[in-house]
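Q: What structure does this chain adopt?
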Amino acid sequence: MSNDWQSLFAKDATLFPHLADLLKDQVLLSTMSEERFHQASFLDQRIFAPDLPRQIVAWADIESVSLPELSKPQYIFHIGHVGSTLVSRLLGELDSIFALREPAILRQLADVHVNKPDDVGWTSDEQAKRLGQVEQWLSRVFHANQRVMIKASSFVSPLARPLLADNGTALFLFASLSRYLQTILAGDASKQEAAALADLRLFRLAQHCGQTLDEKENLSLAQTAALGWLCEMATLCDAKNQSPDATITWMDFDEFLKEPAAQLQLAASHFGRNLSPDHAQSLISGPIMSSYSKAPEFDYSASLREELLSEAAQIHADDIKQTLLWVDQLARRFPIIAAAITTAETRR
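A:
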């Protein structure tokens, strides 16, 4: 990597702030081509490769780089497992959109925001300052007509409020609770992920509800899966309520799959892009819709998804039924959960 990295950093998006060492106040910069960004499903450690040049620099040295005036990124926030990568890939085919999928450095800042680790020791003002700096770094593009669209990890949703506070624009992707449960219960990896995240989600949900809901040991398989929906929907509802100046629209992924071309046009219009019916149809008729978005080398389709979800619904029918009743009981106790359910029912 060139020793004159500051000039390159100011020029365009080539030097990507990949990860931060928050204790040492350093940032790992990776040298990325526009095509590499376009292909990446995740902008985290999973794209590290021997041919990916990297360099560690001081946070303060990046902070000192004078950047041109940049447009604020637009965002896709979501509850997880609801087609956010697919929607990001489709919109990323538009010339005016520079799509960034799941920048890891935002997840690191979200972890500080939620857990407030003592070893980092940032004040609230320092957190806000650092987040603003990272957002500016991520705003850099390759071409003058482009604007960054960040598809955040679901772990980053706690940052939706500050990121959207200054007239932000975002698409909130979700699914109904029953469809979400079927999705999680349809795969071994997603069930394992739900179990691994149960403690964190109970902690985050307790912050929204004002008290702890339950111990994870007392939860059934479907209840453990439901924590993801409850936690992330509550977080997005809170962000919507606390961001009156933001431009936010909700999209149900199952509604998207029913009419993908029309829904894609609506999403593009929400972000200020004009997508013609013919262009939308060509995009949803192409290879993006017929492959697994997070690993395009594997085939996947809406029909295969429906088959897997229907099977999960049958296998876990009793647990899902009891879990839906459990969530209804929680909604009677906690307004934020009632708001999440109402939002999902009225935004379809």
